[in-house]
Design goal:
The complex is a heterodimer of chains A (367) and B (103). Chain A has 367 residues and is α/β, with parallel strands linked by helices. Chain A has 14 helices and nine strands. Chain A has a nine-stranded mixed sheet with strand order 7-6-5-4-3-2-1-8-9. In chain A, 49% of the residues are buried. Chain B is an alpha+beta fold. The longest helix of chain B is centred in the last third of the chain and has 17 residues. Classes of the chains: A alpha/beta (367), B alpha+beta (103). The interface between A and B is medium-sized, with 21 and 19 residues.
Chain lengths: 367, 103
Amino acid sequence: MTSAAPTPLALIAELTHRCPLHCVYCSNPLELKHRADELSTRDWSRVFREAAEAGVLQIDFTGGEPLARPDIVELVRTARQTGLYVNLITSGMPMDEARLDDLVQAGLDHIQLSFQGATEESANEFSGTKAHAQKLRVLEWLKRRRVALTLNFVIHRRNMDQIPEMLALAETSSANRIEFANVQYYGWAFANRENLLPTREQLDRSIELLKRAEERLRGKIQVEFVVPDYYAKYPKACMGGWGQKLMLVTPTGEALPCHAAQIIPGLHFDNLKDRSLREIWEKSEAFQKFRGEEWMPEPCKSCDRRSRDFGGCRCQAFLLTADATATDPVCYLAPQRPKVDAIVAAVNGSSAEPLVKPTWLYRPNPA
Amino acid sequence: MTPELSSRPCLAVGCRLNEKGQPSRILHMPERALRLSGPSLEILERCDGRRTVQEIISELQKLYSKAEPKKVETDILGYLALLHDQRALDFASDEADRSANAR
């Protein structure tokens, strides 16, 4: 039994896994792709056309660091020519003013500039490199250019108390949006989880602070907040449902329903070098596997919320229960919720400030 | 906020309508998109930084002449305010602002 495919809305293009940063919560898989195997400019251009034809509205250029691709300006131009809304998610690292001008000229609609903290010392610790000062330079350059800007603060236990300083930084920039996105626990973040997951008290304080900021900045800057779902009562509607809205393409052309899907054993992912985007979206085994409701176990199958959260995240179910078809253990109704409770209890039993500097597992830069 | 009748709304940076002739008309915004039809499209196509809010209301009242004019005005003001809160519209209040927005 399979479910009919809806229209895909967004394409997440991981142009490369190469990146000058080594963030301890990187959403890339532990096994990174190499430059020699990356899709060519021509391959990507075909993917953009196929995406626009299939109904996709927005493309997110991400990585790794998408600016590590020497053809990034051409890719932006080609994507924009197909009518897609072009969003660049960047660390701002291999950037200078001339390159920024070229990107804006090529039709870039929106830049998301990531920040690892509000202060140089902590930001550089989490990114494993000296990146913060360059980001501040890019912020200045952006003030003089007409392109929408979102500041993405990745937040976690070790930098959550800097939210007031992060807000101040955003307010002196030209940003129209700020995202405070708590780390989600996959890939590198899963490996570093015990040093990253905030305490309940930190989380409550941050929610209160950001509610007030949202009120104060209404009409000026949009404030978005993503909670760490281990603290939620219900699971997140991961990717808006498996195979419902989004397709992610890896640097080498595999089409995935989400960032982490390759951790699920036994799933085969088709490559856009071999099959068309529409065919993969509609018919491939990987996109059909958890699309719709047929695969659901109880308590999801008969739950009123099943069309809202789709049973939660398949990758999280696998990471925490070793069963990708289980109810997301974040759900308070899930038989395996005690696993999440134990993780949360362990974090809240210890101090938010470590006595010794944590030992981070840093993400490397692949060749 | 309630938009000034004399101000001239225009799409904010990062927001644009897709091209005419597409099967459906879309307002693209950072991380969102709105599918437009009927009055919402008629309003947004007129948010060009040249027309005032008052002019947009008058044009829509003519276009929807069967509707109660006061209701058309209230609905438009509400819709413009909503889009402003979502950072999709800017309102230029005089010539100086207008040239800054057209930068």
